[in-house]
Amino acid sequence: MSGSDASTSDGREERSLLECTDCLAPADAFALIGDDTRLAILEALWLADERPVPFSELRRVVGTEDSAQFNYHLQRLVGHFVRKTEEGYAFKHAGEKVVRSVIAGSFNEHPTVEPFGVEGTCFACEGALEARYEDERLAIVCRACGEGHGEYSFPPGGLTDRTPAEVAAAFDQRVRHLHCLAADGVCPECAGRMHTSLVEDGECCLGVSVRVDHECRQCGHSLCSAAGLRLLDHPEVVGFHRDRGVSVADRSYWTLPWCVSDEYTRVRAEDPVRLELSIPLAGDELRATLDDELAVVGTEIETG
Question: What's the predicted TM-score (pTM) here?
Fold first, then answer.
């Protein structure tokens, strides 16, 4: 997409979404799918067992008797949301994203969910934890002291056909996935370049004074967390827990204090940046040293 580009103070490219010289303008894109027949075509493609889908089969599923009228609506989608091949029609990425967004409930669902209890206790006061859902975001919060244990986006579709325990498990997996991509430099929203920075004495959805910020230079999507969240899948951390009878994969991130509290994090050097994360378990302690991009540059284990 080409538009009016500028740079923000942090180096992120700032683009006007309303200006577009070599692509479909956003207003026109939304207008294209603002029609029941066109949405039905996208839905039919989504439900198809195999793609591409021949013209005749697509029209049969949509249920439009007038072939010329159906073709008019289909061709309006071709090139932007649908691609045409010799065998028929299939999604372009934008068309698939539209359907996925509808399924996720991002466009048309606004559910209300009562707070529900989740496993684990508060790292600050050992109080009971609960999940709270509002504005398509799910937060893990201590019922006693209100301490936050993470708040992240969670589409309404993630609530469908799931018990509270299943919602909590899905949320845990989603958070792990989001931060894994972000820390690897890939925006989970647009696949743009993600910038990682260490922030001291900043505000976040977690009660931490040393936090990690991830921000996309393309779309501005951002995430913040305690530094420990980056280490959930690191081999040394996984092995350290496994050797002591604990599976990190089976533990919700908010039940691991070093993932939600900066009590275990120390800034050991400023230039170059070196962060030390301590992980205590079964009388032993794993110390991991990270650089400014959260890459692990060293580990050591101190036995009790």
Answer: 0.68
